[in-house]
Amino acid sequence: MRTAPIMAEDIHFHARRTIEQVEEGTELAPKFDEHGLLPCVTTAAATGEVLMLGYMNAEALKRTIATGEAHYFSRSRQVLWHKGATSGLVQKVVELRIDDDQDAIWLRVEVAGDASCHVGYRSCFYREIPTGPGDFERGLLFRESEKTFDPLAVYGDVPNPTKL
Amino acid sequence: MRTAPIMAEDIHFHARRTIEQVEEGTELAPKFDEHGLLPCVTTAAATGEVLMLGYMNAEALKRTIATGEAHYFSRSRQVLWHKGATSGLVQKVVELRIDDDQDAIWLRVEVAGDASCHVGYRSCFYREIPTGPGDFERGLLFRESEKTFDPLAVYGDVPNPTKL
């Protein structure tokens, strides 16, 4: 019965008391790192493709739970980030999961516009690293050949989040 | 032509010079965090299920590339970790990808024994966090009902890696 509205501020996390509670229980007791963040794997619900790896702080996780839309914490901009607020590429949550020790999130989403990468590709993971025997100087292999959107048209002169 | 053997020590990463090089180029120039690590999403190649989120240091990434078997860096034990060395649940690399700014890895694998979680489940992400309207005290929902293996039988008295 998911009927009553819920606000991010209504959501409270449990204290972490025992390994059994964290691994085998039903209490949400996430562990954030020294920066107050946990990593979030976001996949396309329909295909299983990994779209991006983002980070959530407590507020982003609470808003994602409350709204059913993906929120992250932008490490490059150091702000709460409602994915799609600038680009329109909102991610609707199909399923939200947490891992055994509750320090990582798996988010299955449907994406308006079918793109999640600021470079313009569908997935951020558009290049393969060849493995196994062979000459390592083969270099990376592109696995998406065309961009889904034009980053300049969507983001304009917003600074590129990639840091060297 | 992936025929010549390659050793982890033969693999060298490129220096990060420009955003264009990192995002749009074919040079492998990974960015490790202040602990010398980058996160790695590992999925089952056949189903797209997210099995685990691990971390790699430079050595783990080089060994994964060279051997075609997943290597990680264990943060709890602070050692290089050939996945499956203890449990036998080796992860064979089907495809290795890197993201736009080269600070995250996506590893598609086949797993001997069909399990990747130290608690005994197939995936580490065996619990769902309900989202959207409703009473938050619903708690987590188990999405795997049976363990794939018995952790006690496989790991014996090896310390549990989960930290509170």
UniProtKB/TrEMBL annotation, chains A, B:
<feature type="binding site">
    <location>
        <position position="101"/>
    </location>
    <ligand>
        <name>Mg(2+)</name>
    </ligand>
</feature>
<protein>
    <recommendedName>
        <fullName>Phosphoribosyl-AMP cyclohydrolase</fullName>
        <ecNumber>3.5.4.19</ecNumber>
    </recommendedName>
</protein>
<keyword id="KW-0378">Hydrolase</keyword>
<comment type="pathway">
    <text>Amino-acid biosynthesis; L-histidine biosynthesis; L-histidine from 5-phospho-alpha-D-ribose 1-diphosphate: step 3/9.</text>
</comment>
<dbReference type="Pfam" id="PF01502">
    <property type="entry name" value="PRA-CH"/>
</dbReference>
<keyword id="KW-0368">Histidine biosynthesis</keyword>
<keyword id="KW-0479">Metal-binding</keyword>
<dbReference type="InterPro" id="IPR038019">
    <property type="entry name" value="PRib_AMP_CycHydrolase_sf"/>
</dbReference>
<feature type="binding site">
    <location>
        <position position="99"/>
    </location>
    <ligand>
        <name>Mg(2+)</name>
    </ligand>
</feature>
<keyword id="KW-0460">Magnesium</keyword>
<comment type="similarity">
    <text>Belongs to the PRA-CH family.</text>
</comment>
<feature type="domain" description="Phosphoribosyl-AMP cyclohydrolase">
    <location>
        <begin position="52"/>
        <end position="126"/>
    </location>
</feature>
<dbReference type="InterPro" id="IPR026660">
    <property type="entry name" value="PRA-CH"/>
</dbReference>
<feature type="binding site">
    <location>
        <position position="103"/>
    </location>
    <ligand>
        <name>Mg(2+)</name>
    </ligand>
</feature>
<comment type="subunit">
    <text>Homodimer.</text>
</comment>
<dbReference type="GO" id="GO:0004635">
    <property type="term" value="F:phosphoribosyl-AMP cyclohydrolase activity"/>
</dbReference>
<keyword id="KW-0028">Amino-acid biosynthesis</keyword>
<dbReference type="InterPro" id="IPR002496">
    <property type="entry name" value="PRib_AMP_CycHydrolase_dom"/>
</dbReference>
<comment type="function">
    <text>Catalyzes the hydrolysis of the adenine ring of phosphoribosyl-AMP.</text>
</comment>
<keyword id="KW-0963">Cytoplasm</keyword>
